Structures are given as C-alpha cells and as structure tokens.
Amino acid sequence: MDWWTISYRLPAEPSRWRVSAWRRLKRGGAVALQQATWSFPAGQQFDPMVDDVVALVAEAGGESFVFRGEPQGDTAGRLEEQFTAARNEEWTEFLGDCAKYDREIASEIAKGKFTYAELEEEEQTLERLRRWHRRIRTRDVFGSPHAAEAEVRLKEVAEALERYADQVFDRGGT
After folding, report:
1. Can you give the chain as a three-state secondary structure string?
2. How far apart are CA 29 and CA 40, in angstroms?
3. What is the pLDDT of residues 39-74, one digit of tens each?
4. What are phi and psi of 171, to 5 degrees?
5. Which of 38, 78, 136, 165 has the fewest C-beta atoms lying within 10 Å of its C-beta?
C-alpha cells in the first residue's frame, strides 16, 4: 500500500498557519511522524488532503515536500499501527460522547423535560454523532477493533432518541 508523506516549513509568525496545517492533517486522519512531517495512506478519502495542505502552506509563504510511495522494511507495519492507534483514540472519544448522549437523554426523561425544543436539540446532537461516525469510519482503513462497538453504540443512542421522541409526542411537546 502506498502512503503519502508531507513535510513542510512555515514562517514562525503568525502561528495560525502552523495551527491550521496541524488541524487539517489531524482532522484528515494523518499521523505525525515528527514536527511538520505527517503520513497517511494513499486513497480517494485522503488524496484531496495533499492539495489542501500544499495550498495552505503556499498561502502562508511556506514550502512543502510531498512524497508518495510504499514504505520499506518494518516501516509499513509501524505506520499502520500508529494510524490504527489514532483511529482507536477517535473511536474511544466517540464512544465516550455516545455514553454522554445516553446520560443526557436519561436526564431529560428523569426531569420530565419533554419539549419539542429539547427534542430538536437532541436530534441535532445525534446528527453530529452520525457525521463524526462517518468521518472516522471513512478514515479507518485498517479496521480498528473499536469500529464494531461504535456502530452498535450509534444504533443504541438512535433508538434511545426514538424512545424519547415518542414520549415527547405522547405529551404534546409542552
């Protein structure tokens, strides 16, 4: 499997350029090899990030170096391990947010807060969780062991919201 490696130099000031590059690469699923050097698998879900980061670096007056190729020796395995560890961290955070969402719905039920406004807010939160799940799943090319659990938890919280919605409608949303 081919991997992209991007290394860049940016002016020291303003720092917003470094932060922006870091955020884009991190959000895109890349793993940091060292300061200002990142790697990620080649593939349609990652390839656009190359042009995005190169354009950002150029806009900031920096210089980027981009390589694509197959890692040699044990490097491929180590990259895959780092990449999967990063997805595990994302899935763990996602699962934590699902648990928090479950507690939030349970709290609203316990308080008897069955309003349409609250239901709409909870629906927006579920949609955010769904988008986040899709982004992680798209990047999880090596199959993190947490992916299946996350799929189940997302279905469970969606069902919890459905039960809450039934109660809101049964009470007239007041």
Report:
1. CCEEEEEEECCCCCCHHHHHHHHHHHHHCCEEEECCEEEEECCCCCHHHHHHHHHHHHHCCCEEEEEEECCCCCHHHHHHHHHHHHHHHHHHHHHHHHHHHHHHHHHHHHHCCCCHHHHHHHHHHHHHHHHHHHHHHHHCCCCCCCHHHHHHHHHHHHHHHHHHHHHHHHCCCC
2. 7
3. 999 999 999 999 999 999 999 999 999 999 999 999
4. -95, 0
5. 78
